Every structure is written in structure tokens, then in C-alpha cells.
Amino acid sequence: MSQATYGFDDDCALFRESARKFLGANADLAALRQATALDPEPMRMPTAWPSDDAFRAGAELGFVAAAVPEAQGGLQLPRAALAALAEELGRHAFPSAIESTLMVAFLARRVADSEAGGALLGHLAEGARATLAVCDAYGEWEHTASVTHTVSGSGALTLTGSTHFVQDAGKAEWLVVRSTGPDGAALVVLPRDAAGVTHRRDGIVDLTREQGTVQLEGVVAEASAVLPGGDALLASAMPDAWLLLAADMVGTSEWLLQTTVEYAKVRTQFDRAIGSYQGVKHPLVNAMMSVDRAKSLVYAAAEALDEGRDDARLLAHMAKAAATEAADFTSSRAVQLHGGIGFTWESDVHFFFKRNKHSELLFGDAAYHKARVADLLIDG
Questions:
Q1: Tell me: the pLDDT tens digits for 234-244?
Q2: Helices marked H in the chain — which ranges?
Q3: pTM to 2 decimals?
């Protein structure tokens, strides 16, 4: 029986290896610790990474262009390659807007033939950063919107309101804002420095990421800035966001697992390595199995999305749910098995623990995705 390759041809393998080498050389935990140490209250208001030099360096290697169609200047590699990239980003707790921009790229390529979609993809291929601004104050993105718009006689939209949980809000150069109006929901492409757009950085526990609230006061957008499809377009693109987050958690969890295994080999209690005790072995094996299960679902979802299969959405929900549960289990065991040091910021474990906590809740926790899996299986 041949082994599944999940679409990893020579180009994908080379892309993954390039990402691994780049992050190995540029994702230095000592630099991350030094940057976050500059913040007087790093646990509540991280101010590290005011710029995103890492994004530009990654963009030069094609990290974002890999998701952009060739017609717009990109490479359009299979999603398996992008999932592998997200895995490596998580494995290095890499602080950059790469994943936020990839989510926008996957959304825009569904309407690449439109004026707004084609223009946005062109910006991304040239190295611009972008993010989704689609959630209300409760994290909801499906049924309610906290930004409203009116439509003028010329078709121009005027947007007012606020959108929350915007990833990399301070770094993004382009926003895709969800709003509702008399003509229904709309996804509007806006430059972040447009007149009337402001943002406030949120205090979050994950020091490797940035999140903010974007306020819009009478922001005017031409009709040509509206992506066609509205909520249907957003719904079709969300599986890609879940896929990237799940892959990131797989990478982060693998780092936690491997680091904890190494620690268990050298940390002794009663003249024995703690890894020799059943009480340590068993949770590590369970963590390994949960991460492997999540990784399999991530690549199955990537392949299904690339092939446009009917089960793609189901697999994306399953991947996000499995990765969230694996992240929760692996993170908690890593902290516990590191003992007292594991509960402090002095341990690198905490960077990865907090990154997983952020990813677990973003765009739906495990309970949400399991409920959607049940809906799809029962209702079809």
C-alpha cells in the first residue's frame, strides 16, 4: 500500500525546508525574551514587536505569495505547504503577521476575478500585511456584526462601529471588515490608515502575538472595495483560518512535548530520572497520541480543501477541535511536569503555553467546532 503524501510534491517539500531553515536561523527565543522583558507588565500589555521585520523577511521567501494565485503574482502552492509553514511558525512561537495575512489571502483568492479581490491579492503578493476584522465584542462572526454601513447613491459605503479580536491590528496595512447594512452583510477592503480608522491594542497573555480593537467613524469606502459574496464568502473561507490555527497548535504542542520529554530525561527525583516513572510516561504518551491525531486531521483537511471536496468543512472543524484539545492537554502537562519552574515566565515553556491558549479560543474553541461537526453529520 502506498503512503499518503498529502500533496507534498518537490516544490512543497522545498518550501517547507526553506521555512524550517529560515525560522531556525531567525526565531531566537533569547531575542523573544529580551524584547518582551522591555515591557513593564508583559503579562497584560505586551508591547514587543512594534514592527514586523520578520514578516518582510518571510515575505521575501514567498511565505505569503505561496497562497496567492499565479495570475496575481503568487505561487499558489497546495494548502499542505501552508499548513506546514503554520506548523513551523507555531514550533518557533514566531511573532509575525504571516498567519493573519494568509487568512486574508485564502479569502481573497475565492473572488480573485473581482476588482477588490484581485487588487488585494496583488498587494499581498508584493508583501503587504492584512488581517480579518470580522468579530464583534463576543467573538461572534457568523450572525451579528458590530460595524454597520449606509450606502450612498453612487454605491459608496460609510462604515461606523468597532470590530474586535483583530489579529495583528497594529501591523496590518489592509483590513477586511465585516459590516451590515440595508443591503445585507458586506466584506469591505480598507487601508488601515484610512481616514476614520483607529485601533487600540488589547492586553493579552500571549506575548508572541498582537491583537486589537478597530474603531471606524464614518469611514468611506468605494463600491469597488467590496468583496462579492458577503457572509457566504466569509463562511467559505473560515475553514482555512481554522486550518492555519490548528497547524500552528500542532507545531506549538510538538515543541512542548519534545521539550518536556528532554526535561524528563535529565530531571531526577530520588536518584531517578522523572521520565522513568509511570506517572510521567503515561501523560507524555497520551500527549504524543493527541498531537499525532490532530496533525493527521490538519493534513486531511488541507487536502480536502485543495480538492474542493464536500467533506472539507467537516474536516476543518475536526482539525481545529482536535488541535485545540491536543494543545490544552499537552500545554497543561508540560507546565506540570516541569514542576515549579513551569509556572513561571522564567521557563520558555510559558511562551508556548500562552500561545496555545490564545489559539485555542480564536475563531471557536473545541466545544464550538464539535457542535458544528455534529450539525454537519446530523443535518448533512
A1: 999 999 999 99
A2: 10-26, 29-37, 53-60, 79-91, 98-108, 115-125, 230-266, 278-307, 312-337, 349-361, 366-379
A3: 0.94
